[in-house]
Amino acid sequence: MKRWLSLLFYEFKYAFLGIRKHLLLTISAISCMIVSLFLIGLFLLIGLHVDHFATNVQHDMSIHVVLDQEVDDQETIQQIEKEIDSVSNVDSIEFSDKDQELELMIQEKGEAFSLYRGEDNPLSHAFFVTVKDSSKIDQTANKIEELEGVSSVAYGGSSVRDLIDLMDVARKVGYALAVLLLILSLYLIYNTIKTTIYSRQEEIAIMRQVGASNAFIRIPFEIQGVLIGGIGALFPCLLLAFGYPKIYEQMNGVLFSHLFSLIEPTQVFWMVGICVVISGLLIGILASLLAVGKTLRGNR
């Protein structure tokens, strides 16, 4: 046990020695890792929120079903509701009488329409219908519009679908950029480790002559790669842990409207922070394995 601890201590000491000898190069690699992992975390954060917003928009998508002006008795309204409910893809139905419809119009278009309150209300009764699958909202709306007693339907149409498609493109672009930054970070650490190995070719040759195994030579460089990746991930995580809750608090958890509600800080930290840390460590170990394996094979 003592021998293993002594060996492990030596490997770490040798790794830190490599960092100290090539401090500027190491700092450069760590700095690039910090920037890259920060941007990766930012793109992941944006991607998660875009996904969250798209889900909210899809769940909130509803069909506004306006009834004919003459439909006013409770029995006919209930009959139409049953027919709407029988249409496939309908999830839930909420009745809105003409007074409620007027109040919604006043909220949207201004107090000028308040003159129509009471018996002068020219609007019709309506339903708000939510769907199970928003991609089939067109077909559902068309079927409802064909029902007797239905005057018109409205659901945002192509503008809502265009918004969802736009958010989907933004999410994919963000994830693609995150992957490119991961590759860039991998290349930076790979070059750092490779340069360190080249500068120690004489030491490695002596170690080989005295019988040192490939694993014994390789481990300090792998530790060095993990340290660079881990330190590079630390700063973006701290920024996320302290910065995002401040933004969330300042915006009261909402961007523009309830459809664009922000994700809770705790959830964000666990989803994005853990991804950043794992990415940093994996990049560090993978880059060092590639650099050490290729360079040591060439130096045999």
UniProtKB/TrEMBL annotation:
<feature type="transmembrane region" description="Helical">
    <location>
        <begin position="173"/>
        <end position="190"/>
    </location>
</feature>
<keyword id="KW-1133">Transmembrane helix</keyword>
<dbReference type="InterPro" id="IPR004513">
    <property type="entry name" value="FtsX"/>
</dbReference>
<keyword id="KW-0812">Transmembrane</keyword>
<keyword id="KW-0132">Cell division</keyword>
<dbReference type="InterPro" id="IPR040690">
    <property type="entry name" value="FtsX_ECD"/>
</dbReference>
<feature type="transmembrane region" description="Helical">
    <location>
        <begin position="226"/>
        <end position="248"/>
    </location>
</feature>
<comment type="function">
    <text>Part of the ABC transporter FtsEX involved in asymmetric cellular division facilitating the initiation of sporulation.</text>
</comment>
<dbReference type="InterPro" id="IPR058204">
    <property type="entry name" value="FtsX_firmicutes-type"/>
</dbReference>
<feature type="transmembrane region" description="Helical">
    <location>
        <begin position="268"/>
        <end position="292"/>
    </location>
</feature>
<comment type="similarity">
    <text>Belongs to the ABC-4 integral membrane protein family. FtsX subfamily.</text>
</comment>
<protein>
    <recommendedName>
        <fullName>Cell division protein FtsX</fullName>
    </recommendedName>
</protein>
<keyword id="KW-0472">Membrane</keyword>
<dbReference type="Pfam" id="PF02687">
    <property type="entry name" value="FtsX"/>
</dbReference>
<dbReference type="Pfam" id="PF18075">
    <property type="entry name" value="FtsX_ECD"/>
</dbReference>
<dbReference type="InterPro" id="IPR003838">
    <property type="entry name" value="ABC3_permease_C"/>
</dbReference>
<keyword id="KW-1003">Cell membrane</keyword>
<feature type="domain" description="ABC3 transporter permease C-terminal">
    <location>
        <begin position="176"/>
        <end position="296"/>
    </location>
</feature>
<feature type="domain" description="FtsX extracellular">
    <location>
        <begin position="62"/>
        <end position="153"/>
    </location>
</feature>
<keyword id="KW-0131">Cell cycle</keyword>
<feature type="transmembrane region" description="Helical">
    <location>
        <begin position="23"/>
        <end position="46"/>
    </location>
</feature>
